[in-house]
Design brief:
N-acetyltransferase domain-containing protein; 2 domains; 299 residues; 8 helices; Acyl_CoA_acyltransferase; Aminopeptidase
């Protein structure tokens, strides 16, 4: 059976479990970083087959959200009341990120409580069992002299941090959040980091996490299990291009090289992006497919 957005329910479930695992690792890294400076850490609460992750309220839904709910089982009214209490105690705006395959009754319960979908992101994927990634650069050929290299964390951690922050600076997020996101990628053991060079000049950066797909993040409530085509999924994230190099194919090259490197190390690759973004367009050009949409509910 296929979802409305183009992959089987089994594949969509595995991608959603992997994405929830990715968010978990982000927040675990945040918690470790905060505790090193005796600062308030993170709260991670498994519930209704998903997770509630809470950090600094100022970081908004990037690091404060409900994820993975309603895909392995639905959420009861009591679950939703408990979730609301967690966000209220953290003095953080509530944000539910629901996959397209989330149970319909969960969406109905949210609607009854006054929540509306006010945004969305798409999940793109490539099944590496079926598709061999093409070489970079982008076949559109905007710049032939792009080189992608893995970052030496020992020598270039600070440089990666600075390039990542600078590439995102014009997007409107706070410098403190951008700094934290770069630091989290540097700290994650499951993540490889990359630089992009144009004619030998540093032009951008990106990250790639390799995630072991869990049976469920809430196995005690698991009621079903699809045939599992993937055991390891690589997630592409934190793609950043310096302003002076935009429009030259840097981001496309970063995507294509990571797709190539994932071959032999993962069963599939995924990327989460807004539908009209450059990330989405570059993912599709590289041969990735739309898996499903995640709607963002708030009130």
């Amino acid at each position: 059976m296929a979802t409305e957005t183009g992959c089987t329910n089994g594949v969509a479930l595995l991608l959603e479990l992997a994405d929830t695992q990715h968010i978990l690792h982000q927040v675990e890294a945040y918690d470790t970083l905060q505790k090193e400076t005796d600062s308030p850490g993170a709260t991670i609460t498994p519930i209704a087959g998903g997770l509630i992750v809470l950090t600094n309220p100022e970081y908004g839904q990037k690091l404060n959200r409900a994820v993975g709910l309603g895909v392995t089982r639905s959420a009861t009214d009591n679950d939703l009341n408990n979730i609301e209490s967690l966000f209220e105690q953290a003095q953080t705006a509530i944000s539910f990120h629901l996959a397209g395959l989330a149970r319909d009754d969960l969406k109905q319960r949210l609607a009854a409580k006054g929540y509306v979908a006010n945004g969305s992101v798409n999940v793109y994927y490539m099944d590496l069992n079926e598709t061999i990634p093409g070489p970079h650069p982008d076949p559109d050929g905007r710049h032939p002299n792009i080189v992608i290299e893995e970052v030496d964390r020992t020598a270039n951690a600070e440089l990666f941090h600075d390039v990542s922050v600078e590439g995102f600076r014009s997007g409107g997020r706070s410098p403190e959040l951008l700094s934290h996101l770069a630091e989290l990628a540097l700290r994650r053991d499951d993540t490889k980091l990359f630089f992009a060079y144009v004619d030998g000049k540093l032009a951008g950066s990106a990250a790639m996490a390799t995630l072991e797909v869990p049976d469920s993040l809430d196995s005690s409530t698991r009621t079903d299990r699809p045939t599992q085509p993937f055991t390891t999924i690589t997630q592409l994230y934190l793609d950043s291009t310096l302003p002076e190099f935009r429009g030259q194919g840097v981001h496309a090259a970063l995507i294509r090289e990571r797709l190539r490197l994932a071959q032999g190390h993962a069963s599939a690759v995924m990327l989460v992006a807004r539908s009209a973004s450059g990330s989405a367009r570059n993912a599709l050009r590289a041969g990735m497919k739309l898996a499903y949409e995640k709607q963002i509910f708030s009130r």
